Amino acid sequence: MKSNLLHIKQIILVSLLSLLIFLSWTSLVFSQWVVVTSPQVSPDWNLWSVSFVGPSNGWAVGEDTSNKRGVLLAYPGSSWTGPYPVSVSSASWSLIGVDLAPSGGGWAVGYDQAGKSGVLLHYSNGQWGAVAPPPVVSSNWELADVQMISSTEGWAVGADLANGKGVLIHLLNGTPSVVNPPAYSGSNWYFSGVFFTSSTEGWVIGSDSSGSSSKAVLLHYLNGTWTFVPPPAANSSWLLNDLFLTSPSEGWAVGYRTEAGAEAGVLLHCSNGSWKAVTPPNISSNWYLMGIHFTSSSEGWAVGYDQVNKRGVLLHYLNGQWASVAPPQVSLDWELRSVHFTSPGQGWAVGWDHTNKMGVILSYAAPETITKPDPPSGPTTGDTNTSYIYSTGGSVSNIGDSIQYRFDWRDQSKSAWLPVGVISAPKSWAVPGTYVVKAQALCAKHQVVSDWSEGVSVNISGVYFPIVLASPKEGTAFDPCSLYGPPTFEWTAEEPFKSYEIQFSPSSDFGKISKKIKATSTSLLISSTLWKGVLLLPEKSGGTVYWRVVGTRADKTIATSQPFSMLASPPEPVQSPNLSTTSRSALPELTWENACNVKFKVWFGNDPDFKKRTILNFNLKNPLDNGGVFQSTLTSRQWETIRKLVGDQTGETLYWYIECWDGLGRYSKTDAMNFKLTD
How far is CA 150 from CA 103, 107, 171, 184, 219, in A? Predict the structure, then answer.
């Protein structure tokens, strides 16, 4: 196990293999964990640790037993890839811990079995590279865990196996240096976990096996001074594997205790610097905990191994209570060793499938929920057929997705779902009365809706209009794709009119009438050319356009309808851009969802600044063709030109993004993306 260091871990874990015994899980919390397909590494490999910086940037590390080397797998946002080769001057080495800094950079640590020393890999500028370990005064030592405080500073811990004591290494600006721990009374002790909340305070955990029984080791760092802290009395024989702190005064550690030849998971809680044992859920008669991660002081996860039922252990902490979570079915014998969450609703766990001799990767996605929006704000009194603006907001997706809003106007109509980022909509009522306006939120990606907000009463007084607008309905949103099928404008007249004029304005008071279109009936299909001019009235960023109808009677007197509003959606870049392959030997197909764009420039570069670049140009007549999806297989010359930006070398990273222009001539672009060339 982690606390007993790699070679001891392997002996213990292999001895645990046997048939699966199923228990009833009716008392367990329902699981949202699923098994994720992992890359093919070798006939025999496993994973020890996982770390993420954001939902689409993560690494997992472990050991390729078949080839006697460490394993590095990457998650760039869609699937796990790798293994990624790293040059380490050893005939046999492995990786046990990894941690990435939110602001960039990271380290992975492990054990060089051939050289009997720790392994250090540094991640910088998108690449992993081996770093020579510092001179530890020992003939046999290893590293078990690493934690980054920032992109330039971190700590690694492990064991001096030859001298029976813990190892501390300070990582600063890419350089490791040995730090001597304070004097300790034991003769056989080591470190297994580290966590710092700032550069001035942190904790290290480990185990002391000096006597006939083991006990935990707790080491506190504060303002440059290391101090051993007596552990609580959790059991006569116990040790710790991992820890996580949510603040300088709040945290958790996990491990196991041994009693009567069996093991049971251990949970320690730190409150105001004081550690105490907490009774965990009852998993089985023989089980332990290996990893822990919290998203806040009120929610976290711990993972491990149930040796009776031969499966991983998942514990969920929520609002002061730990509960066991039913794991998914992986194989006849498997375990979990490390867990990392990017948000309360998204996480990962890794471990070892004993049966199939391969790494295990689980992903967690909580059922999405959308919080109720704020009550609408806007005028609470008004007149019929007069447009007013109402706003809402405040809704959040628990998995971080974008939000859209709509309003229930309580006159048997609702607004359309507003574009992402728009929280206001205009409304006019034709009939006097009191309307309790409410708002609702929607996940823009998964169509999950919230409850309706609290209502706001709007009192509308009556004003008569002989012309009543009918379509497009109040607040209808139009994107640039409507150029390829413009709307029909319709209204009703309570009296005869000789002719009509539709007027368009960027302001609700029609102080400036930007477009006028003549009509002889109460219905008019607008041309694409005129419609383009209407959509551009609120400038190229999109916004509200107002329209009304002016009727001319036979006696040349006029009557004006109430104004209606509509939304010209802002420009959006293409969605879901993808290259079907990044292989040097195959031609990739370039695809995306057009999002109403008709002109595209696809930039490829050798670095994020695109200092060396090539640009591909594409144009469409109608962005709705082919179901609104663009597809184009690159020519061999195009693909070769792109690959040459990085010397056509396997493993090199290429960067790309897409500039877009919609049918209104409005510009947008995607974020920069990247991929690695493969064979």
Answer: 7, 11, 10, 29, 21
Q: What is the pLDDT of residues 216-234, one digit of tens each?
A: 999 999 999 999 999 998 7
Whichever domain contains 419, its CATH number is 2.60.40.10
Domain end residue (candidates: 420, 445, 461): 461
Tens-place pLDDT, residues 282-313: 999 999 999 999 999 999 999 999 999 999 99
Q: What distance in Å separates the CA atoms of residue 442 and residue 369, rounded to the nearest whole number?
A: 10
* Residues 493, 555 contacting (CB under 8 angstroms): no
Instruction: Calculate mean pLDDT across residues 423-428.
Output: 95
6: pLDDT strictly greater than 90:
no
Q: What is the pTM of this model?
A: 0.59
Task: Give the count of domains, the chain.
Answer: 4
Residue that is last in its domain, among 570, 601, 618: 570
Q: Nearest-CA neighbor of 256 among 12, 25, 28?
A: 12
Task: For 51-69, write each residue's pLDDT tens digit.
Answer: 999 889 999 999 999 999 9
Helices (H), 52-156: none
The span from the CA of 545 to the CA of 526, in Å, is: 15
Strands 334-343 vs 433-443: parallel, antiparallel or unpaired = unpaired
Residue 138 contacts by C-beta under 8 Å, 6 or more apart in sequence?
A: 160, 161, 162, 163, 167
- 303 in the same domain as 215: yes
Is residue 398 located within the same domain as residue 347? no
Domain that includes residue 412, residue range: 369-461
Q: Are residues 565 and 592 in the same domain?
A: no
